[in-house]
Design goal:
Elements (H helix, E strand, L loop, with lengths): L1 E6 L4 E6 L2 H33 L1 H8 L4 H43 L2 H8 L13 H4 L6 H34 L7 E2 L3 E4 L2 E4 L6 E4 L2 E4 L5 E3 L4 E9 L3 E7 L4 E11 L6 E2 L4 E5 L9 E8 L2 E3 L11
Antiparallel strand pairs: 1-2, 3-8, 4-7, 5-6, 7-14, 8-13, 9-10, 9-12, 10-11, 11-13, 11-14, 14-15
C-alpha cells in the first residue's frame, strides 16, 4: 500500500509505502515503549508505597520494610494472646461441665455401671481426623486464619457456656425431685415394693414402699427440697413424716424412733427429718419409705439411685 500527497507550493509528490514488515516493526516499537513505561511506573509507585504505605507495598510486591515486619509480628503476637485466652476460658468451661457431668452421674447412674464406664481399656480405634480449627491452617493468609480460629474458639466457648447454663438449670430441677437416698449411713433393702407375705399375718399383702434396714438412730434425710406437711403418730406407721416436693411429688418416712422436722418446715435435700426406729407396725429397726406422684403411690426404686445397694 502507498500513500501519496502534494507538498508545498511546488506541488512535489511524496509517497510512503506501508508493508507488513513496516506494520510489525511499528507494533514492536510501540510494545517496547508501553512495557518500559509500565515498568517505570510500577517501580516508582512501589518505592512510594514502601516509604509511605507499607500495606500497599505488600499488596504490590510482597516485600515489607523491617518496621512493617515488626508491626506484623506484633499483630500476630496479639492474635496468639487472644487465642490463648480464649482457649483457657474454653478449657475452664469444659472442666466445669465435667464436674457437672459427674454430678449427673452420681444422681442418675448406678455405681456398677459407672465403674464400667470409667474403667480403662486399651481396645480403642478410629481414623485420625484433625480438629476443625487446625485442619485447614495456613491454607489462607495467616491473619485471616487467626481471625477465623479465634471466632471458632469464641463460638465454642459460647456454646459450652450455654450448655453449662442449661445443665445447671436441669440439676437445680432434679434436686427438687425425690431422687436422693432417704438414709445417711449403712443400710440394706429388706423389703421391696409390691406384693409380699405380711410379716405379721403371713398372708399376701401390698407393700407400698421400700424398707431400709439400718441401726436405730441412723439419720433419716429428705430426698429433695420440700415442705413438711405431716409430722406425727400413726398406728401403722408409728412416728411418720411426710414432705411435699415440686412437680406433684411427695414422700413418706415411717417407723421413726425420733421426729425432728415439724409441720411447715422447709427442708433441703439432705436435711435431717428424724432417726431410724421400729415404732408402729414394725418387726425391727428400719425406715419405711414411700413416694407419691400427685397422690398416686409409685415404686421408689424408679427414682432412687439404688444400683450400689
Amino acid at each position: 500500500m502507498q500513500l501519496m500527497w502534494l507538498s508545498g507550493p511546488t506541488g512535489n509528490v511524496r509517497t510512503i509505502s506501508i508493508t507488513t514488515r513496516t506494520v510489525l516493526t511499528a507494533a514492536v516499537v510501540i510494545g517496547l515503549f508501553l512495557v518500559t513505561s509500565g515498568f517505570l511506573l510500577h517501580f516508582v509507585g512501589f518505592k512510594i508505597a514502601v516509604e509511605y504505605n507499607p500495606d500497599l507495598a505488600r499488596s504490590i510486591g510482597g516485600v515489607t520494610t523491617e518496621a512493617e515486619q515488626k508491626r506484623m509480628e506484633s499483630i500476630y503476637r496479639d492474635h496468639l494472646t487472644q487465642l490463648r485466652e480464649s482457649m483457657h476460658n474454653t478449657v475452664n468451661e469444659i472442666r466445669q461441665l465435667e464436674t457437672m457431668k459427674n454430678r449427673f452421674m452420681e444422681m442418675a447412674t448406678p455405681n456398677v455401671v459407672r465403674d464400667k464406664i470409667n474403667r480403662k481399656d486399651d481396645n480403642k480405634g478410629g481414623p485420625l481426623i484433625a480438629p476443625r480449627p487446625f485442619s485447614s491452617l495456613f491454607r489462607q493468609p495467616l491473619g485471616i486464619e487467626f481471625d477465623q480460629t479465634l471466632q471458632d474458639f469464641v463460638q465454642t466457648q459460647t456454646a459450652v457456656a450455654e450448655l453449662r447454663t442449661n445443665w445447671e438449670k436441669q440439676l437445680d430441677w432434679l434436686h427438687t425431685l425425690p431422687t436422693g437416698l432417704p438414709v445417711r449411713g449403712d443400710y440394706r433393702i429388706s423389703s421391696g415394693f409390691g406384693i409380699r407375705n405380711d410379716p405379721f399375718t403371713g398372708g399376701l399383702a401390698m407393700h407400698e414402699g421400700l424398707d431400709f434396714t439400718a441401726n436405730t438412730g441412723t439419720q433419716v434425710i429428705a430426698t429433695a427440697k420440700g415442705t413438711v406437711t405431716r409430722s406425727g403418730w400413726d398406728m401403722g406407721y408409728g412416728n411418720v413424716i411426710e414432705v411435699q416436693h415440686a412437680e406433684g411429688f411427695s414422700t413418706r418416712y415411717a417407723h421413726l424412733s425420733k421426729r425432728i422436722a415439724s409441720v411447715g418446715d422447709v427442708v433441703e435435700r439432705g436435711s435431717v427429718l428424724g432417726e431410724v426406729g421400729s415404732t408402729g407396725r414394725s418387726t425391727g429397726p428400719h425406715l419405711h419409705y414411700e413416694v407419691f406422684i400427685r397422690d398416686r403411690v409409685i415404686n421408689p426404686a424408679q427414682v432412687l439411685p439404688l444400683g450400689s445397694s
